[in-house]
Amino acid sequence: MIRWGIIGCGDVTERKSGPGFQNVEGSRLVAVMRRNAERAEDYAKRHGVPRWYSNANLLIHDAEVDAVYIATPPGSHLDYAKQVVAAGKPCYIEKPMARSYRECLEITETFAKANLPLFVAYYRRGLDRFLKAQELVQTGKIGTVSGILYRFSSSAHKARQRDAETLFPYSPTTEMKTELPWRLDATEAGGGLFLDLGCHTLDIIDFIVGELQDVSGEAGNVASAHAVEDCVTLSFRTETGAVGSALWNFASAFSEDMIQITGTEGRITLSTFGNEPVLLETGEETVTFDLPNPDTIQQPLIQTIVDALHGKGECPSTGITATRTSRVMDIALSGYYRGREDAFWTRPETWRG
Length: 353
What we know:
Elements: E1 2-7, H1 11-15, H2 18-23, E2 27-33, H3 37-47, E3 51-53, H4 56-60, E4 67-70, H5 77-86, E5 91-93, H6 101-114, E6 118-120, H7 128-138, E7 145-153, H8 175-183, H9 186-189, H10 193-209, E8 212-220, E9 231-238, E10 243-249, E11 256-263, E12 266-270, E13 278-282, E14 286-289, H11 299-309, H12 319-333
Parallel strand pairs: 1-2, 1-4, 2-3, 4-5, 5-6, 7-10
Antiparallel strand pairs: 7-11, 8-9, 9-10, 11-12, 12-13, 13-14
Helix pairs in contact: 5-6, 6-12, 7-10, 10-12
């Protein structure tokens, strides 16, 4: 039995992840931590968790906690991850893994040196929709992959904080509504909404077609009142030579979310954040695969983590795969932030916006 402790029991843990630690085989949630003691206690009572803390260090060093899930904003991930390593425990970190590629690399190397397992919450790698897309590519249903296209648009520039759900019409929860401020604060998030949302798509493209190479990109602030970027574009190649491009536009009059993977014999169309069927089109047929997401969307990935910790399999989302995604994002954002290898969030006066 893997006994889990959660640092940061906010909205994302209410439905997306928290119940999964209780529901999967070989796992149990035994402790939670939140700086607000009253809210930590309330969460523990509502979810049947035996212990709660308002101090992360106490949870990390709880002798009955075998592994730690860090579910705070990215700005605190590096510090908490180092504390978990010092305690000699495996760790599961919310995405994005950290504020920058440099921080992700430091986390990954620290866990590797300590020979401790590290997992990251790119949970779409465990969902049937994306496993099907990967299967269709790997079994040659669309021939040789030649091109990848992604487009995301939303009217984030028009939304007020209290109406934050309009920023992200594909979300199955109202998480964005209560947590929006940190997502637009580079000190906490490492950038704008691209860091929070774009990482999911880049990671799942990596999962389906392989590591992205020869990456180039640009970012800008077109309409946002905040200092962070609101438009990002990038291009890339895959390991097999396919070319790809992607655009995230948070200053659009329209909403869009589409991944299209084209091959020599067909194409696959699906979204990152939706729940609609995966579409396969070839010269001979058009097929849809209706594979709805589970109620606790992180649960399938959590099961792979628990299995890996029990020595019964591998988890597809690790520190290594997450660091690759962060590298791609940093390439796209480097020009806007005038470099991302330092504490760039402390010098907004130098940013391009």
